[in-house]
Structure formats: structure tokens, C-alpha cells
Design brief:
Layout (H helix, E strand, L loop, with lengths): L2 H20 L8 E7 L8 H15 L4 E6 L10 H7 L4 E4 L23 H10 L2 H9 L4 E8 L6 E3 L13 E3 L2 H9 L3 E3 L6 H7 L4 E2 L4 H7 L7 E4 L8 E7 H5 L3 H36 L3 E4 L2 H19 L3 H23 L1 H9 L1
Parallel strand pairs: 1-2, 1-3, 6-7, 6-8, 9-11
Antiparallel strand pairs: 3-10, 4-10, 5-8, 5-9
Helix pairs in contact: 2-10, 4-5, 5-12, 6-11, 8-10, 11-12, 12-13
Bound molecules: calcium ion (CA).
The site of calcium ion (CA) has 5 residues, from loops.
């Protein structure tokens, strides 16, 4: 190629690239996707995380994929998101895997396991420890592709209308707590209730439930739980680093060209990281508001209570592993990763956090 032609070629390429960027908003829409979510529309952190995912997919695809977000109940009820995306009513959904234990018990490993993995560890397991492949296998029969698409970090233990001094105080307690944490509460003598976020406040206010967990200070402040429960306990032993998920309809995904498939999966990765960053940044300020402005009684669970809950948790998770072949394989992978992560984090994260507080 002559030098002059080469320069011309570069010029034409640059012009095309320029056109592609400036023309992104007006590029022809090739795919119109609906996103259904288990969160109230625009709910801080979770709902806005879903909004961000939709926005990123549209932006990164140069407008070729347009995603319209529906809050809980706008298109389908909160807990029908999985079915809606599975049958193709919507192309993509945003929620949490433990809501789907009725479909697959093993799904619970991919949101939160009591005394399980932190956010950092979940991402390590999913992306580089074999977790993603196991998750894909259990969703495949439902025509769904999962992706990690958000993380709350360590959650709070929850809101209670009385002090928790021993395990006995959990007996007879009716608490909103989903997934495996709920099963642990049941073994401790309580009654777990699964309620979507939008219904918790009124249930707590009316006395239909005695306690609830939700997420952490940022989200809990937004829901106003401090107005209807006196005690705020930590840590969230039941949800040490909850992964939120995007679920994508297999057929809709297969219809995308390779570059757009990459856009969708990488947009999920961006949101997965960004949501954790947002929670990290906002929880501090919200906790300060709860304690200093709203005079919330912030309490740690007594060590004895945590030790007993940990014992019950190990039982519950081991029993889950016995339910089917998939659960057993996931449990083994999960446990092996947790042991290694603990050994490493004892000499890194934990040791550093301790050193910082000396
Ligand atoms: Ca929670």
C-alpha cells in the first residue's frame, strides 16, 4: 500500500469511528429489550443498579440494544421475574438468586450463604474459581443465562423490636429473612417470612412481623425502618456479600451478534463492581444519620448467638448439598473456595483491618 493510500485509509477509518460515536444515540435500534426487576422502581442501590445496567447496555451498544426497565409489579409481580424471563415475556431480569429456591435449591449459593463468602470472595469464586460455570449449569434448563450484576457488601443483621441477648430471644420471632438465613432462623425457633422489599415496612408497622432484615444502612434508611423498630443489629451473618443477578433469556441472547453479547456480559461486570462501590460509599453516611439523627440503638449480636447461628448455618448448608447432584457439586466448590479465601484473608484483609484499629 502506498503511503498516501495508507493515510487516506486511516482518515476514512477515523471518520467512521467518529461517526459511530457521535451517531450513537441515533443509531438504528436493532434489539428492544424489556428488563423486569424484583425491586421497587428506582429504589436506591438495587433499582438504580438495574437502571444503570440498562443504560450501560444501551450506551455500550451504541444504541443498538434499547432496554426499558420495569419496576416490581409494573409488568410482572416481584417474584415472577424468573419465570417472565424464562418464558421470554422479558429478555432480561434483575434480582437475586435466593428468590428462586423454589426453582432450584442450589440457586441460593449464588446470592448469599450464611457465614459464606464476602463480596470480594464471591467475585473471586464466580469469575476465577469455577462458580460462574456452575451457576450457568443450573439456570440452563430454564433457558436463562446468569450474570453477577451487583453486590451489597456485608449486610446488617436486621431490625428488631426487642433486644437479642441469647438464642432464646429468637424463639417465636416472626422475621422477614429470605433464603438460607430464613432456614437458620427456623432452626433457632423463629418463623422466617419471605416478603418483597416494598411490603416490609407496613408488615413491621402492623405487627404482622416482629423483625426484618433488608440490606444495610443506605437502603434501610430509605425504607424508614427506624420508625417502626427500635434495635438495629449487626453483622449480617446471613448475607455477608450478597450478589445481585442479571438473568438473560437464552434465545434473546443467542439472537445478538458476538459484539453485543460481549456488551451485555461486560455491562453486568461494570454494574457488579459499581453497585458495591456505591454501597461502600453511602452506607457510612447513612449509618451516621440513623444513629445520630434518628437515635437508633445499634447493637452487635452477642458472640454466643453468632456461634450458635454459625453452627446451625453449617448444618443447613450441608443439608442443602444433599438435595440434588448440582447442589452437591456447588457445595464442594464453594466450601473449598471459602477455606482458601479464609486462609488468605486471615493474613490480608482481616489482619489489615485489625492493624488499622490497633
Ligand atoms: Ca437482605
Amino acid at each position: 500500500m502506498k503511503r498516501r493510500d495508507f493515510i487516506k485509509g486511516v482518515g476514512a477509518g477515523a471518520a467512521l469511528t467518529g461517526l459511530g460515536v457521535s451517531g450513537a444515540a441515533s443509531a438504528a435500534v436493532q434489539f428492544k429489550w424489556k428488563m423486569v426487576t424484583t425491586w421497587p422502581k428506582n429504589f436506591p442501590g438495587l433499582g438504580t443498579g438495574a437502571n444503570n445496567l440498562a443504560k450501560l447496555i444501551t450506551e455500550m451498544s451504541g444504541g443498538r440494544i434499547q432496554v426499558k426497565v420495569y419496576g416490581a409489579k409494573e409488568l410482572v409481580p416481584d417474584f415472577e421475574v424468573f419465570d417472565a424471563v424464562s418464558r421470554g415475556t422479558a429478555e432480561i431480569g434483575h434480582g437475586a438468586a435466593y428468590y428462586w429456591k423454589g426453582k432450584s435449591e442450589a440457586a441460593q449459593f449464588f446470592s448469599a450463604v450464611p457465614f459464606g463468602l464476602t463480596a470480594q470472595e464471591m467475585n473471586g469464586w464466580l469469575y476465577h474459581g469455577g462458580g460462574m460455570k456452575l451457576w450457568e449449569q443450573i439456570y440452563a434448563p430454564f433457558n436463562l443465562i446468569p450474570a453477577a450484576a451487583g453486590n451489597t457488601g456485608v449486610q446488617m443483621g436486621g431490625w428488631f423490636n426487642k433486644e437479642i441477648k441469647s438464642l432464646d430471644d429468637l424463639k417465636g420471632l416472626k422475621m422477614r429473612i429470605p433464603g438460607l438465613g430464613g432456614e437458620v432462623l427456623k432452626r433457632a425457633g423463629g418463623t422466617p417470612v419471605s416478603l418483597p422489599g416494598g411490603e416490609i415496612y407496613t408488615s413491621l408497622q402492623s405487627g404482622a412481623i416482629d423483625a426484618t432484615e433488608w440490606v444495610g444502612p443506605y437502603n434501610d434508611l430509605a425504607f424508614g425502618f427506624y420508625k417502626v423498630a427500635k434495635f438495629y443489629y449487626y453483622p449480617g451473618w446471613h448475607e455477608p456479600g450478597t450478589t445481585l443477578e442479571a438473568i438473560i433469556n437464552q434465545k434473546a441472547f443467542s439472537a445478538l451478534p458476538r459484539d453485543l453479547q460481549s456488551v451485555v456480559m461486560n455491562a453486568c461486570k461494570v454494574v457488579n463492581q459499581d453497585m458495591l462501590a456505591e454501597y461502600t460509599a453511602r452506607n457510612n453516611a447513612a449509618l451516621n444519620t440513623l444513629v445520630n439523627k434518628h437515635k437508633v440503638n445499634l447493637r452487635p449480636f452477642p458472640d454466643q448467638v453468632l456461634k450458635k447461628l454459625r453452627g446451625l448455618s453449617e448444618e443447613v448448608v450441608a443439608e442443602l448439598a444433599k438435595k440434588d447432584k448440582a447442589s452437591k457439586a456447588i457445595y464442594e466448590s464453594f466450601l473449598k473456595f471459602r477455606d482458601q479465601a479464609k486462609a488468605w484473608h486471615d493474613v490480608s484483609e482481616v489482619a489489615y483491618m485489625r492493624a488499622r484499629s490497633l
